[in-house]
Amino acid sequence: MVGVLLLCHYQLGDALIECATHVLGGPPERCAALAVGRDEDPDVVEEKARRLIDVLDAGDGVVVLTDLFGATPANVAARLAEPGHVRVAAGLNLAMLVRALCYRGLAIDDVMIKALEGARNGILDMQ
Question: In the chain, what are the domains?
């Protein structure tokens, strides 16, 4: 099972996990959030993230999802990427997270494809 780490501004990751828990009917396994505050040292955040990745990885790798491309959480997440082991995506929304959680039994690259499809397909003009 692929692990999922949300690397986000403040408590956004925790809130999204709480929402996903509601949608899925229970807390997801091997899923955690790391909150990044305004004045946090990116090197310290990276160290914390690497420790969480070690905890979340059951041997199938970890998908790191982050909120805003170009911001500190995304910049740190980019430094975590390891082909075939740690995949990273920015633009996190609830649809992306739910898709990643629902398809974690697939190979890590396929989990990433499903997560990105979920994120894009979850954005609609409902007019």
Answer: 3-119 (3.40.50.510)
